[in-house]
Amino acid sequence: MPVVTNPPLNNTTNFSQRVPFATIPQATGYTVQISQDNNSVNGVTEFASADTNPLVNVTQPGTWYIRSRAILPQVPAT
């Protein structure tokens, strides 16, 4: 699946921001991950988004990294 990465979101506390990313043709939705770990290994929060402009909420100060992944329909085997 294509992955679209976004720049880090700098936060003070209890901050919400829309984070737009590119539309992927034929995507039926998107999975969005946020984490303070730039490798997205620890402390990852994941949520579904129907569009490419999700509202991201963070509750701790610091730099947050945001990743998105398109959900694509299955292609039947021939």
List the helices and strands and how they pair.
Elements: E1 3-5, E2 9-11, E3 15-18, E4 29-35, E5 45-49, E6 55-58, E7 62-71
Give a verbal description of the structure.
There is one protein chain. With 78 residues, the protein is mostly beta strands. The chain contains no helices and 7 strands. Strands 1, 2, 4, 5 and 7 form a 5-stranded antiparallel sheet that branches. The chain is elongated, with a radius of gyration of 14 Å. The two termini are 20 Å apart. The model has no long low-confidence stretch (mean pLDDT 83).
3D shape: elongated
Mean pLDDT: 83
Helix content: under 10%
- Largest sheet composition: 5 strands, antiparallel
Number of helices: 0
Low-pLDDT segments, ≥5 res: none
Radius of gyration: 14 Å
Q: Give the oligomer, counting copies of the same chain as homo and different chains as hetero.
A: single chain
Structure class: mainly beta
**How many E strands?**
7
What is the CA–CA distance across the termini? Answer: 20 Å
Beta-strand percentage? over 45%
Question: Helix and strand string, N-terminal first?
Answer: EEEEEEE
Question: Features of this protein?
Answer:
two-stranded antiparallel sheet; five-stranded antiparallel β-sheet; mainly beta; 78 residues
